[in-house]
Automatic annotation (TrEMBL), chain A:
<dbReference type="InterPro" id="IPR006222">
    <property type="entry name" value="GCVT_N"/>
</dbReference>
<dbReference type="InterPro" id="IPR028896">
    <property type="entry name" value="GcvT/YgfZ/DmdA"/>
</dbReference>
<dbReference type="Pfam" id="PF01571">
    <property type="entry name" value="GCV_T"/>
</dbReference>
<comment type="similarity">
    <text>Belongs to the GcvT family.</text>
</comment>
<feature type="domain" description="GCVT N-terminal">
    <location>
        <begin position="9"/>
        <end position="260"/>
    </location>
</feature>
<feature type="domain" description="Aminomethyltransferase C-terminal">
    <location>
        <begin position="288"/>
        <end position="368"/>
    </location>
</feature>
<dbReference type="Pfam" id="PF08669">
    <property type="entry name" value="GCV_T_C"/>
</dbReference>
<dbReference type="InterPro" id="IPR027266">
    <property type="entry name" value="TrmE/GcvT-like"/>
</dbReference>
<dbReference type="InterPro" id="IPR006223">
    <property type="entry name" value="GcvT"/>
</dbReference>
From TrEMBL, chain B:
<keyword id="KW-0450">Lipoyl</keyword>
<comment type="similarity">
    <text>Belongs to the GcvH family.</text>
</comment>
<protein>
    <recommendedName>
        <fullName>Glycine cleavage system H protein</fullName>
    </recommendedName>
</protein>
<dbReference type="GO" id="GO:0005960">
    <property type="term" value="C:glycine cleavage complex"/>
</dbReference>
<dbReference type="InterPro" id="IPR033753">
    <property type="entry name" value="GCV_H/Fam206"/>
</dbReference>
<comment type="subunit">
    <text>The glycine cleavage system is composed of four proteins: P, T, L and H.</text>
</comment>
<dbReference type="InterPro" id="IPR002930">
    <property type="entry name" value="GCV_H"/>
</dbReference>
<feature type="modified residue" description="N6-lipoyllysine">
    <location>
        <position position="57"/>
    </location>
</feature>
<dbReference type="GO" id="GO:0009249">
    <property type="term" value="P:protein lipoylation"/>
</dbReference>
Length: 374, 119
């Protein structure tokens, strides 16, 4: 009755009692019987397995690493050429206005570039890459591999118990591991603020491997609900909410992701879509800025909540773009955009929730300190 | 106990009606993290939004099941919203009402009918 796609782990989700919801065209588990709150806390205390197979996996190949990296640099404001073999970086595709078309992870695998993009954007991303990179390079969507994330303080030990080589990997390392005899492309990364891995696994073997992982003490299945609250506490952007085609990376507070080589005065400054607009934002600042927001009291401030500079009257100075309850924080957490003048930490603002102005403070991100293996 | 199609339960105690949400509704909502209760003494009409419940995922409302006056609220829920998940059909009642027209109660389902309703 529906056109929803299923990941290779769909049957397992049903077996585990997952509550399936439509997400980016896929039927995905929003939670398991444990529930969002306990799943969130479990991930921060032990380890969680997330199915992220709906995301797009793409391999970019060409005559040499330099050719691949330099061509890809025409699409993103990141230093791709300087990426060492077996390393990964966060990045984003920009448009001609300097807006963010999608955010992504890219890893160097020998002379090849392995790219992971958001589910909702993957068709457009693949088209963008093909248009810009082919025929000099080859852009191959990888449709026969599942993608899972294993996150949390015991994730490292869980994966290392299957392949000790995992132990040597540090944050943002990328390597091929052999887990239960299966070749797995592994990066030591994730989107929860915890240590962990993202694993690309041949779809025929993924269910057996995940079932094995779930037998390891402390490893539990975690749904998209907790994935969202975990990434929000970690201060990480959700594409479509916190960043979109109309958001400049400077106002999105993502300048850390633009390496020196691509900034003004760098070896390969500019040369990506909208470079002039991004450079101008670096130099003159932006009217608004993405900030963390800590609502007082217990009421969550959801996305779309308008932010004002006074308890009554005043002017609207911003809007919440992601807001929920943070189970680890033990209270509501949010992020959003506010005018530059209001973006200082500890600035007091008021969010209008159901007609009432409730106090909210501009807060440092992340809400929960990252626990990466550096 | 009577049940509404909005997944509320109503229990008559003398001339008061105690209102909460069903076990089924609490399961569907997931972990409740915030409850906003009405003021005691508020006069409400059937289908007015009287309580806001927020789970980790989303906000939802409880509607007034009948016309009447809110005479008491369960302020325990403001400090301990998780009680809604722990004991939805017991300790976690939301408010007590005095009905303007007690005959409005007649349209609601009994337990067997409600169980059939949620299938």
């Amino acid at each position: 009755m529906s056109d929803l796609q299923q990941t290779p782990l769909y049957d397992l989700h049903l077996d585990l009692g997952g509550k399936m919801v439509p997400f980016a065209g896929y039927s995905m588990p929003v939670q398991y019987p444990m529930g969002v709150m306990k799943e969130h806390l479990h991930t921060r205390a032990a380890a969680g397995v997330f199915d992220v197979s709906h995301m797009g996996q793409v391999m970019v190949t060409g005559p040499s690493w330099d050719a691949v990296a330099l061509a890809f640099e025409a699409l993103v404001p990141m230093n791709v050429l300087g990426l060492e073999d077996g390393r990964q970086r966060y990045g984003f595709f920009t448009n001609d206005a300097g807006g963010i078309e999608d955010d992504l992870m890219f890893a160097r695998r020998g002379d090849d570039l392995f790219v992971v993009v958001n589910a909702a954007c993957k068709e457009a991303d693949i088209a963008r890459m093909k248009a810009a990179l082919e025929p000099e390079l080859t852009v191959t969507p990888i449709t026969d591999r599942a993608l899972i994330a294993v996150q949390g303080p015991t994730a490292g030990a869980a994966i290392a118990s299957l392949d000790p080589a995992a132990d040597a990997m540090r944050f943002m390392d990328f390597a091929t591991l052999t887990l239960d005899g299966v070749e797995v492309w592994a990066s030591r990364s994730g989107y929860t603020g915890e240590d962990g891995f993202e694993l690309s696994i041949p779809e025929a073997q993924v269910e057996a491997l995940v079932r094995h992982l779930l037998e390891i003490e402390g490893v539990a299945p975690i749904g998209l609900g907790a994935r969202d609250s975990l990434r929000l506490e970690a201060g990480l952007c959700l594409y479509g909410n916190d960043i979109d085609a109309g958001t400049n990376p400077v106002e999105a507070s993502l300048t850390w992701a633009i390496q020196k080589a691509r900034r003004a005065g760098g070896d390969r400054a500019g040369g990506y879509p909208g470079a002039d607009a991004v450079q101008a934002a670096f130099e003159t600042g932006t009217a608004r800025k993405r900030v963390g927001l800590a609502p007082e009291g217990r009421a969550p401030m959801r996305d779309g909540t308008p932010l004002f500079d006074a308890a009554t009257g005043g002017t609207q100075v911003g809007e919440v773009t992601s807001g929920s309850f943070g189970p680890t924080v033990g209270g509501p957490v949010a992020m959003g955009y506010v005018s530059e003048a209001q973006a200082g930490i500890d600035t007091m603002l008021w969010g209008e929730v159901r007609g009432k102005r409730l106090p909210v403070t501009v807060a440092k991100l992340p809400f929960v300190a990252a626990n990466f293996k550096r | 106990m009577k049940f509404t199609e909005e997944h509320e339960w109503l229990r008559v105690e003398g001339d008061e009606i105690v209102v909460g949400i069903t076990i089924h509704a609490a399961e569907q909502l997931g972990d409740v993290v915030f409850v906003e209760l009405p003021d005691e003494g508020t006069t409400v009409s059937k289908d007015d939004e009287v309580v806001v419940i927020e789970s980790v995922k989303a906000a939802s409302d409880i509607l007034a099941p009948i016309d009447g006056e809110i005479i008491e609220v369960n302020s325990t829920l403001s400090d301990n919203p998780a009680l809604v998940n722990d004991d939805p059909q017991g300790e976690a009642w939301f408010f007590k009402m005095k009905a303007s027209d007690p005959s409005q109660m007649d349209e609601f389902m009994d337990e067997a009918a409600y169980q059939k309703f949620i299938g």
